[in-house]
Structures are given as structure tokens and as C-alpha cells.
Amino acid sequence: MKTPARTAVAVLIALAVPVAGVGAAHASGGGNDVTRRGSCSGSTDWKIKAKPDNGRIEVESEIDSNHNGQTWHWVLRHDGDVAARGSSTTRGPSGSFSVSRRTANHAGADSFRFRATHAGEVCVARVSL
Length: 129
Fold this sequence. Notes:
By secondary structure, this protein is mainly β. About 15% of the residues lie in helices and about 55% in strands.
């Protein structure tokens, strides 16, 4: 026999499981590189990758909306400071754009945040190396 408290707990768990996966990022590292993927606030997906490159760090960010011709405004931050900013337009065949920059390799762990916006949709990608 189920009690009201047990039923409430079961309902909360059932509701929380699908929400836990929304916007989740997946990390993978092949060699010394670190790649993370996730979803934006709408239907767009993001990817960010950081890897050592001759004493510096190469950071590549990709926005994939599956719609050509969208202009996105973006900012790349390295350890909190603006490393680059700009606007990019999605192109075919996949309706995506990518930004690649080489930055200094700071002492300790380096963290990167790529934020892109278009028509109210926000993408925030983070990676540390």
C-alpha cells in the first residue's frame, strides 16, 4: 500500500529525471585535449574544445543551430578576462559556425567560457584545461 508521502517522492523523482539531462555537458579528453558539449537555452547545441598548442592553448568553440544565415554575437573569456569577442553567421551545410583562438597558457588550470546569443537564445560553454 502506498502512502501519500511515498507517492509524492515517486512523483518528484519521476519529474526530476528528465530535467537532470537538460543542458548537461559531456566531457571527453583524447590525449591532452578536453572537449565538452551541451545544449543552449533553445534548440541549438554547443561544443568547446581546449588543447595545448606549442606552449599556448588552442580553444575551439562551435555553435550548431541547423539554420543558415543567423548572426550570433559571442564572447570568449579566459580565466574571467575577455580574450576575444565578435559576431559570426551560421553557414551551410549544417547551419553552424566555429571560433578558434590561441591564448597564453596561464600558471595552473586555465578556464574558458564561450557565450553566444541570437534572438534571445543563449549558449554558454565552459571548459578547463
